[in-house]
Design goal:
This protein is mainly β and 205 residues long. Helix content is 6%, strand content 40%. It has 3 helices and 13 strands, in the order βββαβββαβαββββββ. The strands form 2 sheets. It has a 6-stranded antiparallel β-barrel. It has a 6-stranded mixed beta sheet with strand order 11-10-9-8-13-12. Strand 8 and strand 9 form a beta hairpin.
């Protein structure tokens, strides 16, 4: 499952490919957290990224061009055009890097964009237990946030727990460990709760 995430900006679908974490050294270098399995393709000299930063940032509404990506002790560090000292680098800390999806490769069979998953019905043993309202992206793994009748449940987006994602039929199947949906065991697992309606993933933000 890809860690690249789709978003929409002014009608253009984009992919989140990285995050700037903190300044490295005194010459404007910035440590990176990568959200792509292909850093050698995404982070090449001349690559341009849209920036997700606070509206009061001097970089708001601007793009950032990569000069070079280096690796220090196994960690990626980027050098960018116009970022020549530590002060400038610190001003970009926590910025999210996006690229237009027109530049993106086709996703693998077991990889999906956020907007494809949001709104899907969630079924356990063929019985609806809720629907996906968003996707959380953590360093260790991605999580589906599932809205049930009376709670939000975090479901790890891994094959062992989410064995089937059927975009055409509009649902995901889950085989959660004991306790994850324990409040549903006596009702929904017995088929007493009506199926939750699923939204059209194409209409989800």
């Amino acid at each position: 499952m890809t860690t690249e995430v789709a978003g929409k900006k002014k009608g253009i679908t984009q992919l989140r490919v990285g995050r700037l974490t903190k300044a490295h050294g005194l010459k404007g270098a910035i440590k990176l957290e990568l959200f792509t399995d292909e850093p050698d393709r995404r982070f090449v000299p001349g690559a341009s990224f849209s920036l997700q930063v606070p509206t009061d940032s001097a970089w708001h509404g601007k793009n950032l061009e990569l000069q070079e990506l280096r690796w220090y002790n196994g960690h990626p560090v980027g050098f960018f055009v116009g970022v020549s000292d530590r002060t400038a680098a610190e001003g970009l800390a926590k910025a999210i890097l996006w690229v237009d999806s027109n530049d993106a490769e086709e996703l693998e069979d077991d990889a999906w964009y956020d907007h494809q998953l949001v709104g899907l019905d969630v079924r356990r043993d063929g019985i609806s237990v809720g629907h996906v309202i968003r996707v959380e992206h953590l360093p260790a793994q991605d999580l589906l946030v599932v809205k049930t009748a009376d709670a939000e449940v975090l479901v790890p987006l891994v094959k062992a727990i989410v064995p089937d994602v059927d975009l055409e039929a509009g649902f995901v199947s889950v085989t959660p460990p004991n306790g994850l949906f324990e409040e549903l065991d006596d009702t929904q697992a017995a088929g007493k709760v009506p199926a939750a309606g699923s939204a059209n993933a194409a209409d989800a933000e």
